[in-house]
TrEMBL record:
Pfam families: MFS_1. One of its GO terms (cellular component) is membrane. It is found in: Membrane. The lineage of its organism: Bacteria, Pseudomonadati, Bacteroidota, Cytophagia, Cytophagales. This is Maltose/moltooligosaccharide transporter. Residues 242-441 form the Major facilitator superfamily (MFS) profile domain. It comes from the Bacteria. SUPFAM superfamilies: MFS general substrate transporter. Gene3D superfamilies: MFS general substrate transporter like domains (1.20.1250.20). One of its GO terms (molecular function) is transmembrane transporter activity. It is a multi-pass membrane protein. The chain crosses the membrane at residues 12-30, 50-70, 82-99, 143-164, 184-202, 246-264, 293-312, 321-339, 345-367, 379-400, 412-433. Keywords: Membrane, Transmembrane, Transmembrane helix, Transport.
Length: 441
């Protein structure tokens, strides 16, 4: 039988997506301040990407497996995706709280590994839940609401260390010790992460499998680790063409954002503020400011998502053109960082980046969900996110260092030129996607 999915109102979609607030608190604190923690613990700038590598490597394994398992999970009380929300939330909360207390680089890198893996356990089922719950006509709307919540989380979390400093929490510490302002920020983030995911679990009901007998039959026939891995690899080899083309867009997009996350703090504190001593007040104040600027891209992504929410709830949009234009605008934002002369101008640069970020978190998933089988939605969402982690692995293994020095020169600020160039390339790759069913909602 075919399940008729009823249209949901804004608040129902908001409730089922609210856990993304906490997930993004985790990602924003990770993306904005882990490089600061690494530098505080003595990491050289060029070594920072390698310290990030455990996170995407784990994602490469975790995401398709969690997607596969959540597709084959059903409990009348706990649902299909919600058990994974909860498990991921528990471990993410623990890792996020303890990360700034690391006393050695290996501890900080390990905390990042556990944090990223655990967040992915929660995040991939959240993506699948939108496709599970909403009819195709509301998919863009649903993913954009998720992006709105993500924007709120990015803005608040990125500003937390700065807020703590304004409240009188010490922003400096002895050499090799992470300041209390960062520790307090991560503790608040841990609380928000767990409580927001728990809110979604309590407020959201899931649809059962359309045909329970067939569901149980398929689950029994494909039980076991080897059967599961075989199916994952089979679906990778037979993924839809649209998914491959979207994968190319994702590759350049996430290479660009990984470059920003790993190098924004050293690049901006050095190039704009001239601060390199990680135990100095000048560096730590500058690093707080970087978090503030990163918060701007979260704020603007929220505003842009609001606009897209309003538009997509009323008229059909061309997902391909929206995504292409948004990525090109974001790429120009990265490039402008190199040319500005005043710190306040970074808000303009990151506002442009925020437009790209809002689109990255919504349009590719909306296009993908229109091109894959509903009963394999979790698996395909997991496989699709390989196109997020593979570029990050390549970047971490030396891709960023090699490319920015080869193309633009040795100065660390050139990483922002690289990020901008890659994001513009990602924008034009959208022209490869021509299936009207996928590009129009």
């Amino acid at each position: 039988m075919n399940l008729i999915k009823k249209k949901l109102d804004f608040w129902q979609i908001w409730n089922m997506s609210f856990g993304f607030l906490g997930i993004q608190f985790g990602f924003a604190l990770q993306g904005g301040f882990m490089s600061r923690i690494f530098q505080t613990l003595g990491a050289d700038k060029d070594a920072i990407p390698l310290l990030w590598i455990a996170a995407p490597l784990t994602g490469l394994l975790v995401q398709p497996i969690i997607g596969y398992l959540s597709d084959r999970t059903w409990h009348p009380k706990f649902g299909r995706r919600k058990p994974f929300f909860f498990i991921g939330a528990v471990f993410s909360t623990i890792a996020l709280f303890f990360a700034p207390y690391s006393s050695a680089l290996w501890m900080a890198a390990g905390s990042l590994w556990i944090l990223d893996a655990s967040i992915n356990v929660s995040m991939e089922p959240f993506r699948a839940l939108v496709a599970d719950k909403l009819p195709d006509s509301q998919r863009s709307y649903g993913f954009v609401v998720q992006t709105l919540i993500i924007g709120i989380g990015t803005w608040i979390a990125s500003n937390l260390p700065w807020m703590m400093t304004q409240l009188g929490v010490p922003n400096t510490a002895p050499e090799g010790i992470v300041p209390d302002s960062v520790k307090y920020a991560f503790a608040i983030g841990a609380f928000v992460l767990f409580s927001s995911i728990l809110y979604t679990i309590l407020k959201t009901e899931e649809y059962p499998p359309e045909d329970m007998e067939e569901f149980e039959r398929e689950k029994a026939a494909k039980a076991g680790v080897f059967s599961g891995m075989k199916e994952i690899f089979q679906n990778i080899s037979t993924m839809p063409n649209v998914m491959k083309k979207l994968g190319l867009v994702q590759f350049f997009s996430w290479f660009a954002f990984f470059t920003m996350w790993s190098f924004a703090t050293p690049a901006i504190t050095e190039h704009i503020y001239g601060a390199t001593d990680t135990s100095s007040a000048a560096y730590n104040n500058a690093a707080d400011s970087v978090g503030n600027y990163l918060g701007t891209y979260g704020l603007i992504s929220m505003v842009y998502a609001l606009i897209l929410t309003f538009i997509s709830s009323r008229v059909k949009i061309n997902r391909r053109l929206v995504h292409m234009g948004s990525l090109i605008i974001g790429g120009l934002g990265f490039i402008l960082i190199y040319f500005i002369s005043e710190p306040w101008m970074l808000h303009i640069c990151f506002a442009l980046v925020g437009i790209a970020w809002a689109s990255i978190l919504s349009m590719p998933y909306a296009m993908l969900s229109s091109s894959v089988e509903p009963k394999k939605m979790g698996l395909y969402m997991g496989i699709f996110n390989m196109f997020i982690v593979i570029p990050q692995i390549i970047a971490a293994l030396g891709g960023v260092n090699f490319l920015y020095k080869l193309i633009f020169g040795e100065a660390v600020i050139n990483t922002m030129l690289l990020a901008g160039t890659l994001l513009i390339i990602a924008g034009f790759c959208n022209l490869l996607i021509t299936d009207r069913k996928v590009t129009h909602d």
